[in-house]
Structure formats: structure tokens, C-alpha cells
Amino acid sequence: MTDTILSVQTVAEASPGMRLARRFLGQKAFVIGAGILAVIITLALLAPLIAPHDPYAQNLALRNVPPVWYAKGSWLHPLGTDQLGRDYLSRVLYGARISLLIGISIVLISGIIGTTLGLMAGYFGGKMDLLVTFLVTTRLAMPLILVALAVVAMVGGSLWIVILVLGLLKWDRFAVVMRSATQQVRSLDYVAAAEAAGASTTRIILREVLPNIAPHLIVVATLEAASAILLEAALSFLGLGVQPPLPSWGLMISEAKAYMFFSFWLIAIPGSALALLIFAINLAGDGLRDVISPEGRV
Amino acid sequence: MTTLLEARDLTRSFEVSQGMFKARRKLHAVNGISLDIRKGEVLGIVGESGCGKSTLARMLLGLLPPTEGGITLDGTDIRTLGRKGMARRVQPVFQDPYSSLNPRRIVASIVALPLEVHGIGTAAERRKQALEILDKVGLPQRFADRYPRELSGGQRQRVAIARALVMNPEVVVCDEPTSALDVSVQSQILNLLMDLRRELGLTYVFISHNLAVVEHIATRVAVMYLGRVVELAETETLFRTPRHPYTKALLASVLTPEPGQGIPETGLGLAFPDPLNPAPGCPFHPRCPARMPHCSTTVPRLLQLGRDAVACHLHDPGQSIPSTQ
Amino acid sequence: APALAGKADNTIRFAYDQAPESVDPFFNNVRIGVIIGQHVWDTLVYRDPNTNEYKGQLATAWRQIDDRTIEFDLRQGVKFHNGEEFDADDVVYTMNFISKPENKVVTQANVSWIEKAEKVDKYKVRISTKQVFPAAIEYLAGPVVIHPNEYYEKVGPKGQNDKPVGSGPYKVTNYVPGKSITLEKNADYFKDSPKPQPKIGKMDIRFIPDRQTQMAEAISDGVDFIMHVPKDQAEQLEAVPTLQVVSGETMRIVFMQMNTLEGTPAPALKDERVRKAIIHAIDREGMVKSIVGAGSRVINTICFPSQFGCTDEGATRYPYDPAKAKQLLAEAGYPNGLQLDIVAYRERNQTEALIGHLQAVGIKTNLRFLQYAAMREQVASNKAMLTHQTWGSFSVNDVSAATSNYFGFRSEDITRDPQVRDLLTKGDTSVDPQVRKASYREALKIIADKAYAVPLYSLPVYYVATSDLNFKAYPDEMPRFWEMTWK
Amino acid sequence: MIGYILKRLGLALLVALAVSAITFFLLRLSGDVALAIAGEGAQKEDLDLIRKTYGLDRPLVVQYVDWLWQTLQGNFGTSLYFKTDVSRLVLDKLPTTIILGFTALGFALLISIPLGVLAAVYANSWIDRLALAIAVVGQALPNFFFALILVMVFSITLRWLPVSGSGTWLHFIMPTIALGYYVAPAFMRLIRAGMIEVLSADYIRTARAKGLPTHKVIFKHALRNAVVPVVALTAVQLGFLLGGSVVIETIFALDGLGYLAYQSITYKDFPVMQIIVLLLSILYVLLTLASDIANAWLDPRIRVA
Amino acid sequence: MSEAILEVGGLSVDIATPRGALHAVRDISFSVKSGETLCLVGESGCGKSMTSLAIMDLLPKAATRTARRLAFAGEDLGKASRKRVNALRGDRMAMIFQEPMTALNPAYTIGNQLVEAYRQHCSASEAEARERAVYLLGKVGIASAAQRLGQYPHQLSGGLRQRVMIAMALMCGPDLLIADEPTTALDVTIQAQILRLLADLQRELGIAMVLITHDLGIVARIADRVAVMYAGQIVEEGPTASLFANPRHPYTQGLIDCIPVPGRTVPGGKLGVIPGVVPSLIGEIRGCSFRDRCSHARDICAATVPVKETEDGHQWRCILENAV
Ligand SMILES: Nc1ncnc2c1ncn2[C@@H]1O[C@H](COP(=O)(O)OP(=O)(O)OP(=O)(O)O)[C@@H](O)[C@H]1O
Ligand SMILES: Nc1ncnc2c1ncn2[C@@H]1O[C@H](COP(=O)(O)OP(=O)(O)OP(=O)(O)O)[C@@H](O)[C@H]1O
Ligand SMILES: [Mg+2]
Ligand SMILES: [Mg+2]
After folding, report:
1. Which of C198, C443, D119, D233 could form a disulfide with D192 if both were Cys (CB 3.0 to 4.6 A apart)?
2. Which structural domain, as residue segments, surrounds residue B309?
């Protein structure tokens, strides 16, 4: 608290937004992570413009062409072609869209479920808290991969099924974090002050509590997006995720693993792309967390 | 003076768990308190940490439902007033100026919140009103668009006071409004509170553990110990002729900046008040230098002595016969 | 550790990607089950894989008594692995056991034709069929193995699975469900069996689900024998000096179904032009050449050419012709193409290639890759549009085991042409080979002319083995370890 | 204490019940068991027969109650696919998975505790950055991809380790690494964060003010307190490892529960799936109970004399 | 009077922050003799704790200490090795912290924590150490001390914990005791008890004590000498009686004025105030740091302000000769 009093004059120089920006930019990890992420997102958005070929167009005469840096490679297919003669670069570019779509959609679904549950539990406490805690325990007790695999195996894999199943299963972290964050905020006096000002419960939750736990929400969302993308890749790897010919990176790894002993680049390219994406998201998420709560790099 | 806010047999208990392996226990944070707060007065409430001051304050504000007993405002049960009804007449100022302001709102929006909730005026009007009240509490216009983290503790507390006053309430419940502040800032806030009271005819409930401050600001003082009021008196009377041994000990413990007086001996034992395991009989008896045998068996009642009241066997001859059990 | 095994201690280590649900051949329907079954058990009749000629195995001779009854003379002096002697009781017990539906034999299609068996004397039995069933000998030479009656009666199918006992060239010495099974040479294997006396002492069969793990094991000399290696990988493994790659055609055919039933989710498929467009769109030769691989051939009718009754004589052929396909689609009212679902369950890379070809003529497909059962459910409940199917006929060398399954109004049939059904039924239940052939030919021709399905190609199988091994591939996907030797 | 444990066991039971019900209905609603049992080429009559013999023609709730009743009696049913007792099948595979789970956990702790402590003690130094880099990279590599690379390097190229199987301890090395490295970063971060927090605690200053040598301050006063949340995480992560071994066991054909789970999923072997999920959920709840008790043992504030 | 046990000359503490160096303590000097109690008083954030931590060499990593002289019993702490400092800490110089709730390690019994330092410094056996712990617990007024040794901190009340902290500080018989706001977290009645105990022990054992507080009431009652800190500097220092009777610095005067004192201030009346807020300590600070809150400020206050002194050792840093 001493800090705050003393900083009065110094802070007056910069606007809050500026200072926040400065704090973010001071975070090397965040800058790197967000930078890579921005590049990947741009490439994904621009895929239709920059992809040299139709990612679905196959050419059985030009199968498994190695990337350009191999002796047999050519600039026609800078990253080579896959087992059906499809341009690998184009597929990787389009794959970014799918991975991002998966990450974002799953986080949206699970985030809405988890945040709602967490807010209710944290704000109302008592029986509601018991109920939500029980739900979370139950959810945590269910082996996620197993249940996801089983359901996808039964219903049949497809992009939206995978998103739906994982979205409905992955809300636990949101609920847990939002619950404790809400509990914390709930006990603060400004909530009591809003109550004393006559504000309704809904209003307090939406206007006083939610904005203050939003930073945690964003951090969880980034990290969960990374884990969702990985999870989808694992499902696809086991053949129970997204279906061909969609160029999901997990699926590409799964298809390429057949060639890994002799055409390593086929698995290395989507594998590194995936690792890079996860790396960037985690780095950005970490940085975000450091900016928000510099002490706890959990 | 007319009674504005009245508490009858107010009790509040909490279920608390003490570690995983122990059963949850009942903690009586406030235990059968009856108080009347009269229009225009400043009722000081003092007591040690954990004696239930804040719990009482929250109940008076209608933020916490009592487990037993009730509160009336001008004769109507506050439960029938509803949250909004209460908000127009009773407002809080909390202890910690750091957690009592929403860090994501600018000052003007914090102060205008009650207006917004009650749908008073347009956004522009509300802002204007907020600026006026900010001016009144001594915060210039330029602070209106700042975030709380850009303010000092004293400035924040001014914002909190402005928020409490924007609806023109009758009663302001101040829960240790200065204990988080440095003395130099404390005096600013105390002066401000006194000025506002004079100007607006406010009634204060002023909670503090600092007796010097209470003596300075209050017209009447209630001394609390472990959830009960042990003494209630006009300020002057209380400080001149304290009746309860605990009040005496409290007064003795006040260290005024007078060199050479040394540290007083309070006469209190080493026992410490534990709200979870209150002593049987008079809750203060384990520490009381004047305890008598029946103090450990019989709970003293709050004895009315003229306009004052005290809960101590020393002053209650009618109860001097111990109820043996 | 990988080092100690293989030729040195006369053990062949064989990895397969799927564990059989049960070792008892009647209680599994997977290839590895058939392979284990043929090594641990014997059948009454043996079909020589080289000449396709039937030879006596547990039977020495047989004769048709009437349309529905065959009499077998049984071999004397054969012993099961537990010492139990083989005689007519074993045959009668086995036949009667498997033919009763309440015994829940998994491979119903293989046994449902059996009515009963009767003992004539100790070494003579009669087996009767429910209907006239010309393919009976073929089945008796394949999936219908003979169990030891005393042991089986005692332990039941569960015990037979836990500790399997047969009369075949190998006996089971260790079985961990889902993990591995070890077979050892049966030193007392009867000399006159058409299966030669085994040379390889031990077979260590491990179930490794991941094909890359299998390949890694093969490369690092962790296993000696793997099969069903995809073409591309097999070709790559050829470069490894310690390995040999052998490919062979199998009886498994690959085709696509098109749902033309009432209430089909894809009404467009009811238009013959659309169906023909689909066939024209697919470059079957190209796929065979670059994806499917050596040992595969393009088929024009929905059956495997070596099967009795299978022919493409007179059936319409649809060459690869995307332009024609587009034109047919336009004629049918789909100048801008159309969108269809396709369900599939194996050979995913081939499905992808099919999808690519269809996309090229404007047919967008949405793949639903399912487990076999789920796919069947889609088909049976009239929810499928296109299917990418394969069918191995249980290695039964007769059209009744193939075409009839998909066009005989069974639940797999999503075209349901009564004319075709009647012709197939006639073929299935007639005794005269000429009558049978004629009816099948007629049925196959209608299927082709009306483009009810897309015949694609036969599926080859690639075996990768240590180069020390002498072995030969047969079209029935049956590696015969009893005849293999070390180099 | 006893009361608390009983209460927790009751909760465990409730959770197990909920998990079993959810998975039961989820799985039954998303596919047809009879078809799964029947396999390739089965006809309508076969399906009807199967439905009848397996009782699949009854309402789902009845099937669930029946299943639950049987399970409670210790009758876990027969594997649809392997035709053997589910209990035997699961018991056979359980040790492998438990061993793998613990070795992976041990591996994770072995690398994360020293790294976490170092990173905290030398916070914001290059050691910290390195540890963080290891953590972030570790979490970014999909474990199946990492497992395949391990195979490439150690089995194909170097030929040091067997690719698959569970015969000797050598078989466990790669699966242990592949599985363990993925959870190590979580531990490392937690230990780091815990240590940083604890190192700035007042009682650490007290210890230093007493003139204690640094190693005593770090290992006696700090680590002991920082390790408390790690215990809680251990339970969760062990549960995660057990569940997550599906992928790894499948790749390494390690004959454990995860592989069995994968098989049962591909074969739609409901009885086995149900029991594995149930078992893992019970294990999870018991693990959290155990970790709470361990926590209490470590943290006298909870233990209470 | 005996030798100065602690000499501080020109001590500064700078803390690296993202916004630049924060000058938490700026060139302060004082000394404490055996048996003497010096109180450092000042408002929150003025650098009191940093001063005490700098003496004990317990500063946070981001902070750096510079001093012309920092000597304990004549020994230069600035040049002492880490080992030597460790040997002095807890043995001859001890410290009590503000928060009795968090200053004890929750994971170990108080017995364990009490004997630790003693065994470290005095190479005593466990039994001897325990005996001494029991003796000292008795001394700080804890009954049935032997049983208490087996208890964990959370089982004690705040007052008891602070007593344990005091006993712990006394284990090795220190020459210097630094107490950083030892009673701020306690209730007033308990505060009085603890302060009394400290004062008694200090007198009895003849220890030099540096007591840090923001409460002028405590200062008045316990200190021999007082140093008033403002924004990292000592603005006024002198014998207690003289300083309270005759505060020379406007800040000291302001502080005294803003406390309500029963009898002296009018109930409900106006209290004295110090307008404005404490300046930022980041960046270079020139001249009197109090000048923008001071009613006596003049232009020359922006230049370096001289220290004035009277004969009885009363010093102040102001252009004014006397309090107004
Ligand atoms: N929500 C709660 N749950 C459980 N116990 C509570 C709760 N709120 C207060 N208490 C307990 O009730 C008692 C009285 O608390 P209260 O906050 O009213 O005391 P206080 O007099 O305001 O103390 P302080 O001076 O420390 O603010 C304390 O023992 C406290 O621990
Ligand atoms: N770790 C730190 N990092 C940055 N600044 C710090 C740190 N610790 C203290 N400070 C700053 O150093 C200055 C002096 O702090 P110090 O703790 O000595 O004040 P204090 O007088 O003890 O205050 P209090 O009465 O609040 O304990 C303050 O401005 C504070 O904000
Ligand atoms: Mg309070
Ligand atoms: Mg301090």
C-alpha cells in the first residue's frame, strides 16, 4: 500500500492504457508469444490468398514430393506434397485455421459453461457452491481423454463433434478458477458497497465482479485453448478426431506418422507447426498472467 | 432525540470449520445486541479485533441478515425496505480504501453508481452530481477520471465517502474508516467527516478500535467484547468514569504522546479472547482483574443506569447471587 | 530385449495390429483369429491354396448323399493337443454346437447353413444343410474348425479361449488376452495332413495396434513378421537390408455403395446418371498404381474374380472420364456439382483419394470415418449416402459369400433390386454349377449396367518379414507359418 | 478425523456414481452396442438375438440400475470383445499402468523439483529463464509426437531401447519419459511459484534474521511449505497420467489399462470401458483424499493437535 | 553512558523498480548505545523497515545498501563476510517483526524454531537449548512453557506469538534488538502488555533497542531518543522529552498536532492536518522533501537543507531555527 501512495505523482504522467501497454511490452515472454501468435493468426486468415494451391486438390502423380530444401524438392511445392499429392504448404496454412477454430470454439463453449458455474458457486456460496464443487469433482474424476475418445468413437468423429465433446468436457478449469476468483472479489468491500447502493445481484455479478475476474478468465482461456488444440490433435492422432480431408495439424501428424521413418519432414512440419502454436499461446498466456499477477507464475 | 435505527437482540452466528478433520462449529460473532441510534448523534463502537464490530455494521447496513433479532429504521423492519429502500437512507464507509473501490471503474463512475442503480438522472446529470459531491469531499475535478489505483489512501477514502453521500442518506455507517490510514491522513478524514455531519445533519455509526479517535468524534460510545455490548454511555461519562473493567483496561492502554509516563500496566491476564470458545459466564472474566467467583458462571445482563448501560456483576447488585450450575 | 529371437532360437515374432476377441475361431471375426485358428485347429477339408483343389484333412473322403447331406470318412489316429483322440464325436459335437443359435457363435454367416451332424460310426459322420448349399465344402475347408468334444464340453467356449486345444500344427502355450499369444510346434502333428509338418518351433504373436510401432519394431529387429503394411511404407521398408517385402493379392474387394432406397438422404443417387458419373469420376487404375499397390487389380463387378460365379462378362464398364462425369451430372441437373456424405471405416488414405477424385468433378463429400459397427448402423438405418466398403468374404471362394451379402436384401443392401435378389438367391441355392454361374452373371450384369455400386479394386496385402524367412503369400490373406522355413 | 475420512469416502462414492451414470448414458446414447457386438456381416436376426441375450432391449435406466447392482456385488460382467471376466482383464492390466503412472510421476518430480527450486532461488536469472524455457517447450510438444521422436532416436537410430512391449524395465523407459515430461512443467511452475512466494514470506526473513545458513533456510523452512500445494497437484496429475496413458500405451503397445481402454473403445466393449472409467474415477477421488491427508500431515494448521 | 553498539552513518537504500531507482532510505545517520532505546518514527512508506532490514542485511534482492559507516560493536558490517554477518545475526543482533501471525514458520513447532538459532550459534545440545527456551518463555510471561514448545504457531494467539518472537530474539542474549512495529497488528490492550514487557526486558538485560513505529504515543512512552523519518530521511532527532516538548521540524509538529489527545484536543473540533501527500521517492530528490506540504516553505528549501543542532543532541533538518 505504501507503494501506491508514493506512486501518485509518477503515474500521473502516463494514461492507464499506456501503462498497461508498457507493462505488457516489458514482458519479453508475452511479446514473443503474442508476436508468433499474431503471425500464425495472420497466416491463417490470409490462407486463401497466400496458399499456393488448393489444399484439397490431389495429384496422384506427384505424391510425397519432399520440400524444396531437399535435392528432389521444387519451388512448385515449397513444403512438398503429401501422400495424395496435395500441396503441403497450403495444407499447413489451412491447418492453422482449423487449429485456431478448434481452440477458440472449445474455449468459447467450455468458457461459458465453466464461467457461469464458477461465478454462481463463488458468488452464492452455500448449496450452490457445494453443487458446483461436486460437479467439478465429478468432471475431474472422469478421465477426459478416455471419455472424449469413447464418445467420439461412438458418434463418429468430425470437426464439430470434436469441438462439442471437448467443449462440454473441458470447463473444469474455468469453473475452478472463476469460482475462487469470484469468492475473492465477492468478499471485497466494493461488492458490499454496490449492494449497499441497492444494486441487484445480476448487476453486481455482471458489472462489479465479472470485469474484475476477466483477466483470470483471459489467462485461463489462452491456456485452455492450447490444451484444447493439443487434445484435438491427440484424438486425431488416434484416428478419432477431425476427419480427412480437413487439414487439421493433428490429423496431418497422424497421417504422416506412417511416413516418419523415411520422410520425416512429413511429420516434422505439422508437428513443429503445432508445437510452435502451443508454445506461442502458452508464452502469451504466461506473460499475461505475469502482467496480471506478477507473483504467481503457476 | 428520536431513534432512527434500532437493533433488537441482534445475533449473528457463523458456521466455521477449523481445519479439515474437525467438525464445523458455531461462532457467535454478534450475540444479542440491542442498540438504538438516535437522529443526529455519532455512535462510536469500540472493541478489540474480532469482537463483532464489522458484523454488526453489516447487519445495520442490511448486507447481512441476522440469525436472530431484527432491525428497524424509523419503526419499519429493514427487511421490508428492500435493498434499494435501504440504500437511500443508510450508506457505508468501509475500512479498507483499497478494496472498497472497484478497480475497473473511474472515480466518477464509482461515485455515481448509487444514482445509476436507482436510475436517477441521465448519465451526464449523474456525472455532474458526482463531481459536485467529489468537490464537497475535497477532491478536485481532475480526479474524476482516474482509477482508484492512481489515488492515495486518503483520496480513496474521500471517494468512498462521496459515494456514501451521493444519495443523501440519513445514516452513514463507518467501519474503521481511518484505521488503514496514516495519522496525518486520518486527521484530514476525521475533519471531513465532522464537517459533513455539521453541514448535512448526518447520523454516524462510527466503528473504531482507536479510543482517542472515538473520544474525539463520538457523542455516545458502545464498548463491545466478544459479540456483546459491555458498556454504553455518553462519551464524556464513559471516558471520565468508565464502569466496566474492560473499558477501564482499554482506556488505560491508550498511549497518548506524553513522554515520561511509561507504559501502563493493564492488569489483564494472558488469556486472550477466542470467539470460538467464549468463556462461560462473563466472557471477559478470564482477563478481568476484578473477577469474582460467580463471574465464571453467570452471564451479566446489560444493566440500564440512567441513559447509560453496563454489563458487569460489579454494577449489578441484583444479580450478585450466583446461579450455581 | 530385441536381440535374442528370430532365426537364432527358431522363433518367429509376429506382430498384428488387432487382438482377437477370442482365440476360438467361432468366437471372433478378425483376420488374426482366422490365422491363429488355422494353425491351432484343423478342418475336415483342406483347400490347397496353390491349386484350389480340396484335399482331406480330418476327413479322408466325402460324398454327397442327397441335395442337403454330405457324408465324411474321418481320419484315424489323429490326436488333439491334450491327448484326446479325434473321432466322429468331435465332429458331431462341434457341428451341433455351432449350429445352435443359443450358443451365440459370432460368425453366424459361417455356420448358419448347418442343420445338424450325425454320427454314422466312429469314423463316419453325416452333415446336413438347412437348404441346398453348394458352398458347404468351401466353408468346411475354411472357418469351420473341429473342436475336441470332451474338452469343449467340459470347459465351454470360455475355457477353450483361456486354454485353447486343437489338433493343428501349432499349440497354444501362453495367451494373454489383448497382449500376446505364443504358439509352439505340435511335435505330434499327424503325418498325413495336407499341411506340412511345421519347421518353425515357436510363434510369438504380439498385438501392436500402432502400425508405426510395428514398423519400428521391424526396422529395429524387434519382430520378424508384420502384415497389412500400407503400400508406401512397404516400399520404403524394402530399402532396409534386413527385411523383405512380399505382396499378394487378396480376396478382399473394395467398392462404394450408393443409397438408392426409398427415403435415401441423397435422392440424387436415385438418378442413374449421377451414379454413372460417380463411377466415371474415379481413376481406379491410377489409385491402384500409386496408392493401393502391386497385387491389386481393378474390378468391374462386386465380387472377387477367383470366386465361383464371379465374372464381369457382359457387364458395363465405366472408364475414368471426368469430363463425361461432369457432363452426366449436368444432364442430371447438377451442373454445379452436389454435396454428399461418405462413410468409411478402413483404408482411410484410399477414402481420401476417392474424395479427391469426386471433388474434382464437383461432388463435395463430407467424410464420416467410423468404426465398422457404426458404419453398418448408418447403412442399415438408411442414413448413409455413399459408403466406402471392403469385403473379404471370409476367404470363402464363392460369390454367395460376396455379392449376395450386398444385394440380397440383407441389411447391408441399400439398392434392393428384387430382380437382382431373385437371381442371387437362385444362384446361392442351386446345385447345378451352370445354373449358378448363369444366374450370378445375370445379377452382376444388372448391378453393373444400372451402376448400383462402384466396383473399385481388390486389396493387396503387403507382408514385411525378416529376410531370413522363406514364405509365400496367398490371396486368402493367410500366412502359413507351418510351411515357412529359415533361409 | 475418522468422520472426515468417512465423509470423503461418501463423496467418493457419490462421484463414482455420478461418473458411472454419466458415462453409461453418454456411451449408450451415442451408439448401438448390439451392432458393436455383432461385428462384420451380422444380420437383423443376429442383432435381435444379441439384444435379447445381453438385455439391451430393456429401457436404459433399467440397464443402468442392473449394471450398477451387478457392479456393486463385484460382478463386473464379461468383456463383450475378449469374452473374459472384466475384473480379470482389468486386474491383469492395472499393474502395468500403475507402474507407468508412478514412474512417470517420479520422473516428473525428479526433474521438476530441482529445477523449480533453482528457478525460484535464482528468480529472473538465466537459470530461471532456462527452466521456464524447458517448461514452455515441454508443454508445447504433443506427447504423441514426442513419443514418436523418442522411438526414432532411441530404438531406430541408436537401437538402445526396445520399441514396444512390457517385458523388462527397459520397456518402461521411453513411455515413462514420454508421459512424465508432459506433466513436469506443471510441477516445476508450481514449485517455482510456491518457492518464490514462500521465500518472500515473513517467516523466511525470521529464519534469516536468526542467522541460519542459506541451505537451511531454503530446504528446511522454505521447501517444506512450498511443497504442500505440490502434493495436491500430485494427486490430480497422477489421475491425469493414468487417464493420459491411453495414447502412450497405445504407441508403445504397453499392455496396460490405457491400451485396454483404447481397445475397448475401438471394439465398443462397453463393460470394459465402464469399469475402466469407473476405476479411474474412483482412483482419482481416492488420490485426492490421500493427497488431502498428506497435505494435512505436512501442514500442521490442518492437522490440528 | 557506554559505547555506541550500533553506528549508522550515511546509510542509503535504493530499490530498483521498473520506473527507476526508488530511494527508500536517503543518507541517514544515527547511533544507539547499550541500554538505550531509539525509536524510529514516521508515516507509512518513509523507509523505516528498509532501514532496519539494511542493518540486518536482510534487504530484498532488488534493494542495494550503501553506507559510509555501518558498524556493530565497532565491527564494520559493510565489510563483513556473509558468514560473519550470519554469525552475528540471531546471536548478537536480533530482530522482531511486525506480523506475529506470519513471522513464525507454520510448519514447525515453536520449540523447534526457538532452539534452532541457539543451537546454530551457541553449539548447545538440544536439551540445553530447550531448557533455555523454557526459561525465556517463562520470562516473557508464558505459563506452562514446556508444553508450549510442542505447539504450532497457529495454535497460539497473536499476543502469545509476539511473546514467542521476543523470546526467540532473546535466545542468544543479543546486544542489539531491532523491533519493527512489534505491536501494530495487536489489539490495544495486548499492545500495552507487549510494550511493557519489551521495555522491562530491555532495561533488565541492558540491551540496545531500535524500535520502529508509526505511533507517536508509543514513542513518547518508551523511547530514550527519537528519530523522525520523512521520505527516507531523518528530519529530526533528539531526546524524547525535548522532541515532544519542543518539536523543531514542521513535520514533527504536524504529526503531533493531528493526533486527537484527550484533554488537549476539543472533542468534535478540528484536528491539525498536514496537507498534500508524501512525494514519490523515485528519481532524484533535491532540497527539503517536505517543502510542498509545509506552510513555512521558502525558495531556499529547494536547496540542500542544513542540519541544525542544539547542545542536548537535538538535531533537525530545516531552515527554521525553531518550531512555530
Ligand atoms: N463470513 C464469516 N464467516 C465466519 N466467521 C466470520 C465471518 N465474518 C466474521 N466472522 C467472525 O466473526 C467474528 C467477528 O468478526 P468481525 O469482522 O465482526 O470483527 P471485528 O470486530 O470487525 O474485527 P476487526 O477489528 O478485526 O475488523 C470474528 O471472529 C470473525 O472471525
Ligand atoms: N520490495 C520492494 N520493491 C520496491 N519498493 C519497495 C519494496 N519494499 C519497500 N519498497 C518501498 O520502499 C519505501 C520504504 O519502505 P519501508 O517498508 O521501509 O517503509 P516503512 O516506513 O517501513 O512503511 P510501513 O510503515 O508501511 O511499514 C516505500 O516507498 C516502499 O514503497
Ligand atoms: Mg472489522
Ligand atoms: Mg515497515
Report:
1. D119
2. 3-315
Query: Per CATH, which fold does A42-292 belong to?
Result: MetI-like fold (1.10.3720)
Residue E224 sits at φ, ψ, to 5 deg, of -85, -45
Protein residues whose CB sits closer than 6 Å to any atom of ligand 1: B 14, 16, 27, 29, 47, 49-55, 209, 275
Side chain identity at E203, as an amino acid letter? R
Domains with residue ranges and CATH for chain D: 88-270 (1.10.3720.10)
**Which domains, from first to last, does chain E contain?**
4-92+174-316 (3.40.50.300), 99-173 (no CATH)
CB D145 within 8 A of CB A238: no
- pLDDT for B238-291, tens place per residue? 999 999 999 999 988 888 888 888 888 887 877 777 777 888 888 888 888 888
Q: Is B325 inside a domain boundary?
A: no
Shortest-distance ligand to the CA of residue A187: 1
**Which of E46, E97, E233 to probe ligand 2 with, by most ligand atoms within 8 A of CB?**
E46
Dihedrals phi, psi of C63, to nearest 5 degrees: -150, 150
- Which of A54, A62, A84 to mutate to test binding with chain C, by most C CBs within 10 Å of its CB? A84
Task: Report phi then psi at E282, rounded to 5.
Answer: -90, 140
Residue B322 lies in a domain: no
Whether residue B128 lies inside any domain: the answer is yes
More confident residue, A27 or E114: E114
Q: Do D253 and C1 touch (CB under 8 A)?
A: no
> Which among B58, B64, B71, B102 is the top mutation candidate for probing chain A, defined by the most A β-carbons within 10 Å of its own β-carbon?
B102
Say what the pLDDT of residue C184 is: 92
- Mind listing the pLDDT tens digit of every residue in chain A (298 residues)? 333 333 333 333 445 566 666 666 667 778 888 899 999 999 989 888 888 888 887 777 777 888 878 877 788 888 888 888 888 888 999 989 988 999 999 999 999 999 999 999 999 988 898 899 899 988 888 888 888 888 887 777 778 888 998 999 889 889 988 998 898 888 889 999 999 988 889 999 998 898 888 888 888 888 888 888 888 888 888 878 887 778 888 888 888 888 888 888 888 888 889 889 988 888 888 777 777 654 333 3
Q: State the closest ligand 2 atom to the C-alpha of E43, by its place in the atom list counted from 1.
A: 25
* Contact state of D1 with B18 under an 8 Å Cβ cutoff: no
Residue corresponding to grid cell 445486541: B33
Q: Which helix or strand (DSSP H or E) is residue C27 part of?
A: none
E310 CB contacts (<8 Å, ≥6 apart)? E238, E242
Evaluate whether ipTM surpasses 0.90: no
- The answer to whether the Cβ–Cβ distance between D163 and C213 falls below 8 Å is yes
Give yes or no for a contact between D19 and D278, defined as CB atoms under 8 angstroms apart. Answer: yes
Ligand 2 neighbourhood includes E17 CB (under 6 angstroms): yes
Q: Quote the longest CA-to-CA distance of chain A.
A: 75
CATH number at residue B178: 3.40.50.300
Query: Which residues have a Cβ under 8 Å from the Cβ of A160 and sit 6 or more positions away?
Result: none
Counting ligands in written order, the one closest to the CA of E187 is 1
Q: For chain A, give me the number of helices (H) and strands (E)?
A: 13, 0
Question: If you write DSSP's letter for every residue of C142-153 in order, what string do you get?
Answer: TT-B---HHHHH
Chain D hits for A225, Cβ within 8 Å = none
Flag if C356 and A156 touch (Cβ within 8 Å): no
- Surface of D (11-70) touching A: CB under 8 A: 11, 14-16, 18-19, 22-23, 26-27, 30-31
Contacts with A274 from chain D: Cβ below 8 Å: 142, 145
- For position C239, what pLDDT does the model report? 86
For ligand 3, the distance from its centroid to the CA atom of residue B189, given in whole angstroms, is 18
Domain boundaries, chain A: 42-292
Q: Is the CB of A3 under 6 A from ligand 2?
A: yes
**Residue A56 and residue D168: Cα distance in Å, rounded?**
45
Say yes or no: D296 contacts chain B, CB-CB below 8 A.
yes
> What pLDDT digit, counting tens, does each position of D48-99 carry?
777 787 777 788 888 888 888 888 888 888 787 777 788 888 888 888 888 8
Count of structural domains within chain B: 1
